[in-house]
Design brief:
Blueprint (H helix, E strand, L loop, with lengths): L48 H7 L4 H5 L70 E2 L2 H30 L11 H22 L4 H6 L2 E4 L7 H15 L17 H6 L1 E5 L4
Antiparallel strand pairs: 1-3, 2-3
Helix pairs in contact: 4-6
Length: 272
Amino acid sequence: MKCPKCGYLGFAASDRCRNCGYEFSLARPAADFDLPLSIAEPEPLIPSPDVQQARQPLDLNRIIGGAPEDLPLFGDPDDGRPLVVAPSRPRAPLGVRRATPEIPRARLRTARPQEEELFDPPPASIVPAASTLEAIATPARRIAAALIDIVLLSGLNAAVLYFTLRLCGLSAAEIPELPVTPLVAFFLLLDGGYSVAFTAVGGQSIGKMALGIKVVSEEDGPVAFGRATLRTFAYVLSALPLGAGFLPVLGADRLALHDRLTHTRVVRPPSP
């Protein structure tokens, strides 16, 4: 039904207009409210004054009671300034703020004497004395160490030969029946491995350990495995011509033939 006052068109049966509250009983007969049969342009809907007043926008200045310039958030939008300005640098979260400012610690600086220079020689108190440096081993110590090694290797070779005869069921008089070439090759490998292993590992055989001497390179460093192997073969060269290769040990530099060939020397380390 169409309200004659506000023009509201309602489809529910009611005694009043749901828009403006007008009572339909005060209107003219119902025949006048029938819709025209012909399709015509609909009449414009004119809302009631109450509806118009309800649809008007809210006047914030009237509600709050202030002028636009008194309200910071409702200024002139055309002045080019943002209404809300964020701080240029955000503050750190509370969890990472320092309770007190960090105070830098003062560094103590000792003044350098004027007479002291950057490249001055070290003081005499830190220079080792000549007695603490490594000294060349004496010939007597080298000969005694060699004799100890020869005794140990001779006993080891005798034990190997004894157990070989026992395994073969032979007596001491039947030693020539053993194969000479494999037996000699085994003894050379055993004795040479003893010399190479002890020289490369610590520079000292058992005899040198007992006499307190060791083999070092010309650079006063440890002897590498290859140089230790070469020194063992050169040791055989020193012993072949009736031990003539050991005679230079009696000289001023105390270097034997195998020492000169392998660029090594036997020294006496300083006592700790």
